[in-house]
Amino acid sequence: MAWKIGTAAAVALVIAGVASSALPGPPVQRAAWREEYRTPAAIPFPEDNPYSAAKAELGRRLFFDPILSIDRNRSCATCHVPDLAWADGRPRAQGRHGGDLDLHTPSLLNLAWQDGPMGWDGKFQNLESVPFGPITASANMGLSEAEAVRRLAADPGYASAFAAAFPDAAVTRPRIEAALATFERLIVAAPASFDRWIAGDERAISESAKRGFDLFNGRANCAACHSGWSFSDGSFHDIGVGRDDDLGRGRLKPNSVALRYAFKTPTLRNVDERGSYMHDGSLRSLEAVIDLYDRGGIDRPSRSREIRPLSLSPDEKADLLAFLQTLTSGPSTAPVVAELTETPPRP
């Protein structure tokens, strides 16, 4: 990640901070931590799916159009609602027949910085491979790949849009995936008070939030997984939550003890607008999340080595909460999508 601290000295400071007290660290230590959260210069796009405004606009149209569901009454935006931090505000996603699906709807904020496998259990190779999971799932959108391609190819407006985005007007699954992924990489968290503080405005966040930042990077060790500007390492960890039969990435990697009960680290951007929490929506508030980490979760062989009881005081918990609340960009009614331009946009 381009915004990571690159010097051995800085890394040593971070490691040393794990065992530090809850009191604010020396100015040089906090300054080193702050450097890890600088806003990146541009939104990254993969070489095999470069940005174009026409492709992004096609992806935007597909994202909000119920044409990709069998009953034409669901779209990607049914579960990923802009006004709800690109999630749905439910413990678990609602299926097309009315019941709950198995997992909590993750936010789409800052997916451009999520490398590697996607989804709670990493069953998708990359962002491009995600769309047809929910599109073809019978409990979700329930539309076959062949019918999705047929519907779009038969629509003159879409035929024109595909021709503008790609060398010819052919509608194919890879092009649907590429367009949706391009649009989704534009869903970027707007600057929050935390970012103004990182940029040098010392009055942008409270002293309580600053102490929470020190805890987050120091003794509480949250930054071990929720790292960088996007507050996610893009990896999978057992944090000590979930049912015994809820194996997460361990279902796909049965020979790995470390990946049993492991789920992908979500971003913390706009986190206080996104309850419930965890892959199964089992925790209803940020206070409950902090309490889970304070207890250390379920002690089992697969639990991450970064997770252990913290014995936080009530004041320390309040400081952590105050810090997390600085990561929200603003009113949830303000959709966050980078502007469509002919050149790759900035976050």
TrEMBL record:
CC cofactor: heme
Pfam families membership: CCP_MauG, Cytochrom_C
GO molecular function: cytochrome-c peroxidase activity; electron transfer activity; heme binding; metal ion binding
The record's account of how the chain is modified after translation: Binds 2 heme groups per subunit.
Major subcellular location class: periplasm
Annotated heme c 2 binding sites: C222, C225, H226
SUPFAM superfamilies xrefs: Cytochrome c
PROSITE patterns in the cross-refs: CYTC
GO CC aspect terms: periplasmic space
Binding site for heme c 1: C76, C79, H80
Co-factor remark: Binds 2 heme groups.
Protein location: Periplasm
InterPro entries assigned: Cyt_c-like_dom, Cyt_c-like_dom_sf, Cytochrome_c_Peroxidase/MauG, Di-haem_cyt_c_peroxidsae, MauG/Cytc_peroxidase
All copies of domain Cytochrome c, residue ranges: 207-328
Pathway(s) the chain acts in: One-carbon metabolism; methylamine degradation
The protein's role, per its UniProt record: Involved in methylamine metabolism. Essential for the maturation of the beta subunit of MADH, presumably via a step in the biosynthesis of tryptophan tryptophylquinone (TTQ), the cofactor of MADH.
PANTHER family in UniProt: CYTOCHROME C PEROXIDASE-RELATED, METHYLAMINE UTILIZATION PROTEIN
UniProt-recorded name of the protein: Methylamine utilization protein MauG
UniProt source species: Methylobacterium symbioticum
Gene of this entry: ccp
